[in-house]
Amino acid sequence: MNAGDKGQGGLEIWISIHSHHAIIQNLSPCPRIQIMVVRLCRMHMVLVNAYAPTSSHPTEEHAAFWDILAEQLAKFAHHPLLLGIDANIQLREHKDC
Asked: Is 67 exposed, middle or buried (0-12, 13-18, 19+ CB in 10 A)?
């Protein structure tokens, strides 16, 4: 578990204690990003849980979050990856699509 500021914005990745999967590494590069490397059968898989700052946060905090996330994901570029993210963005229709 990665507790956020004042109990908000924290993250969790749950794995059953009855699971045959082994947790190899548990990283939290910042309160909004949690990375867990697990062994599933014979392979390693990277689980990432991330919670982006909302629109009420300063622009610098948004930029720092996305920079940290990109840097961390690059470290695991050659591993199977499962990414769960609350990106706090609004998608807009693009006129060229």
From this structure: exposed
Per DSSP, 72 falls in state H
pLDDT digits (tens, 9 = 90+) for 42-74: 788 899 999 999 888 888 998 999 999 999 999
- Alpha carbons 52 and 42: distance in angstroms, whole number: 32
Identify the CA nearest to 35 among candidates 85, 97, 87. 85
User: Pick from 85, 80, 56, 55: which is nearest to 70 by CA?
Assistant: 85
Q: Where are the beta strands (DSSP E) in 1-97?
A: 22-30, 33-40, 43-51, 81-86
pTM of the predicted structure, to 2 decimals: 0.74
